[in-house]
Amino acid sequence: MQGRVYPLVSRAGWQGDLLALLAGFLMPLAFAPFNLYPLAILLPALLFITWLDVLPGRAFARGLLFGAAMFGAGTTWMYISIHHFGNVNLPLSLFILALLVMIMALFYALSGYLFVRFFHPLSLPLKLVIVLPAAWVFIEWVRGWFMTGFPWLNLGYSQTDGLLSSLAPVLGVYGVSWGVALSSGLLLLAVLKKSWFAGLSVVALWLLAALMAQFTWTTPVGEPVKVSLIQGNIAQDEKWLAEMRVPTIERYSRLTRENWQSDLIVWPESALPDFRYRVLDILEPLGDEAKVHHSQLLIGVLSVQMEPVRYYNSVIGLGVTEGIYHKQHLVPFTEYLPMKSLLSDIVDFMDVPMSDFSPGDHNQALMEVKGHKVGLSICYEAVFGEEVITSLPEASMLVNVSNDGWFGESIGPHQHLQIIRMRALETGRPVLRSTNTGISAIIGPDGKIQSASPQFEVHVLTDKVQPMQGITPYVQWGNWMVIMLVSAALLSAFVASRRVKV
User: Fold this and answer.
1) Which residues, at least 6 apart from 381, have a Cβ–Cβ distance to it below 8 Å?
2) Mean pLDDT across the stretch 226-233?
3) Is the model's pTM score more than 0.90?
């Protein structure tokens, strides 16, 4: 035993299992829309304590319980997307959701197992301050690219409104996660060992974050740009109905013509319920009008390449300058089928609705608005910070178009917006987020919401945005700096553990 403070939860008793499950279940409360971000420090500490002084198998089980509860409670919007709007039958929807949740939970299960299996000989301070915080960040990073990635509910996102968010321009969201997990480990050490030094270390970490919050990495460039984000509020279950085609086009066209005074007008993802070549009679006149009014349109629409035949989820630019952007990071099992030769028969048998989009090239030209380059992302792409920064430092503004109607009246749109706010913090750029049903928002380079639309209402969000120039350390280094640091910490701890064992 490491001490007498945690005997009930650290051994193989059910109390520790229950504590891990409860910590995971409460974890989504640390994120939007609840924003109880101090829980992101407390709850990992509860999981850490259940991993102390147990066998590897027990740590695996408790990690699995924590992860399953966290993703089960925190990603309920996936069920809405799959069942209500994906038209997948109820049993299969529940099976798919359970499978995805368990895959994500396995990361925490394996972390618990490996922690006990390989780092058990280390002292408690090394475990709580070096190993567990670094391991947490490492598994979040792996989760961000494994099977194309699902970096949802990363610890760092919970701190968008917290002091530790000042780490984002330097180390990105994974650096913020590290700060949260390190705070958790230090506070737990302070309690278990009654260590004043550990307590003071937490204070020092947060004072450092407060100092970093005073530093500005980017500066204004040029005059503010007047923008209008068009939120058409077309219900997801009506969006693709044939009888909604004309009303949808008329609504977006009318709202656009009422806002020609704006320099930039943005429509959401797939705002037009058709392929680009079939709505040219709508797009070309709008583009001509935009030129007359010295305005720029960015419109979400599906596009097709004929030879060879490829379908894209796209944003087109019309007006003063023209261009097109094809979505690069597609959503597996929704926008494309991975391992198509192996899985197509299974998908056909289960009657799962599936799109067949192709990814866009990685070197697509940036669009311009009033001489400012714009970095574009479509929906899910914005959850990958390392992909968003590829448009920088050239881009002075970021634009994300999305259709969060897939999430229904769930916590999904709030979580998605919180993630995109982190992109503003990491890059020091304003972000314009145009959505079909909300939440559309204009986000400042400090990650704070400058203005936002209500959900499930037809709304035009108009405001002025200040383009920014410069480069943050995160834009320069990407995720590699923090990953190298946590890898070095884990490797050093592993070597030390082997020496103790000998």
Assistant:
1) 327, 328, 329, 387, 388, 400
2) 98
3) yes
